[in-house]
Amino acid sequence: MHSSTSTGRPPGERGSDVLVIGGGIIGLVTAWRAAQRGLRTALADPAPGGGAAQVAAGMLAAVTELHYGEETLLGLNLASARRYPQFAAELAEASGGLDIGFRACGTLAVALDADDRTHLRELHALQRRCGLESEWLSGRECRRLEPMLAPGVRGGLRADGDHQVDPRRLAAALLAACARAGVVFHRAAVERLTVTGGRAAGAVLDSGTRLAADQVVLATGSLSGRLDGLPPEVAPPIRPVKGQVLRLRVPGAYAPFLTRTVRAVVRGSQVYLVPRENGELVIGATSEELGWDTTVTAGGVYELLRDAHELVPGITELPLTETRAGLRPGSPDNAPLLGPTELPGLHLATGHYRNGVLLTPVTGDALAEVLTTGELPAEARPFTPRRFSAGAPSAGPAGRTAREESLV
Q1: Is the model's pTM score more than 0.85?
Q2: Closest by alpha carbon to 18, among 381, 378, 1?
Q3: How far apart are CA 66 and CA 68, in angstroms?
Q4: Is the peptide bond before 256 cis (omega within 30 degrees of 0)?
Q5: Fewer CB atoms inside 10 Å of the end CB: C or N, the chain?
Q6: Domain coordinates of the chain in residue numbers?
Q7: Which residues of the chain fall below pLDDT 50?
Q8: Which CATH superfamily is domain 104-162+240-330 in?
Q9: Hey, what CATH topology would domain 1-103+163-237+331-408 get?
Q10: 152 CB-side CA count, 13 A
Q11: Helix axes 360-373, 25-36, angle to 10 degrees
Q12: At what angle do helices 71-94 and 360-373 cross, to 10 degrees?
């Protein structure tokens, strides 16, 4: 336990054992797990429960998101995926009964032409080499599973272990669980990190309020490298990657429209369709390196609808209810930064890129462990922020560049 009574902070300065900066799902799960461990925990964010989770589709796709060279990240993804059923049940209880929409529906990745089929076959071979369970299906077998698929589908991979969750409901449940666990919320923007005596000591809010803490967790997603007061040598190398997402509604007359997540590459662009039990259909996601731009563009919407229509022609009959754009936090190797930095007292929980929702359970556990014991659990050690420190090898655990593309 890290007591804050011995820090010598000025009288009247608000103090805690842990201050989490950032109230997205990663910050919230960190705060919840820390409070469960008995740490006096505060969280600072002007609108906790917001962030990238409000845009994300919520695919738990450890198998169908596999990339070459990401075997280490695969291990972390699988560890987190295995925890989801128990995590969902525990969070429902801790939040007072809020369901996070965890759905064990599986995923079907399909090929629309001969090139896609070749790539999907290669991915299947990689999955098998990694010991993953996936089944190759003919086009006819794909359509038998999902009758709404286009007649031209040439084959597919069935991954019954790749499930889904509703990120908006996940954020709401985490927010409630934090409140019930005693997390103190400061609904304000953080102006700068406080560094005292060579260690992170808290933060100053834009209101001028000073928050003191024995340990600080920076979990502000794509903004994580931009906090004032952050020493340059520990600023995480995070970049924003824009994604545009559409939401459609499936009227009762069309149900069931799809029974599982369907995804494909169409002319080199990834597209996926995620059917919710409440009748919502989420279509995403573009991947655009455009800095901090979060504009929903006509081109982005058109491309998603065009590609989704090639997969499932019937989508053009559905009402379009929402268009959104958000920013994924990408790291140089597209893997997360978890745990202690070179600045004593400062931890990172950021850089989850396309796996933030999937990695929520394992991130909360890893950060709670390091905050209480000082040690990262073994599964999280390859993802220490120190891998990007001066003198560290340039390639991180994922071993691939930001521009390399997925096979599916």
Answers
A1: yes
A2: 1
A3: 7
A4: yes
A5: N
A6: 1-103+163-237+331-408, 104-162+240-330
A7: 1-12, 394-408
A8: D-Amino Acid Oxidase, subunit A, domain 2 (3.30.9.10)
A9: FAD/NAD(P)-binding domain (3.50.50)
A10: 11
A11: 40
A12: 90
* Token pair belonging to 379: 């599964």
Structure tokens at 380: 């999280």
Sheet hosting strand 155-159, strand order edge to edge = 135-138, 155-159, 107-111, 261-266, 269-275, 280-284, 239-249, 320-330
- Show the tokens assigned to 61: 């796709």
Residues 6+ apart with CB under 8 A from 133: 63, 159, 160, 161
* Cα dihedral across residues 222, 398, 18, 343: positive or negative: negative
Helix locations, 182-297, DSSP H:
none
Looking at residue 49, its pLDDT comes to 96
How far CA 363 is from CA of 22, 135, 369, in Å, comes to 14, 30, 10
pLDDT at 249: 97
Supply the pLDDT for residue 395.
42
User: Token pair of 239, please?
Assistant: 């970049």
Q: Which tokens is 42 given?
A: 């505060």
Instruction: Output the pLDDT for position 153.
Output: 95
Q: Among candidates 34, 47, 74, 32, which has minimal Cα distance to 221?
A: 47
Q: Which two tokens stand for residue 198?
A: 């060579």
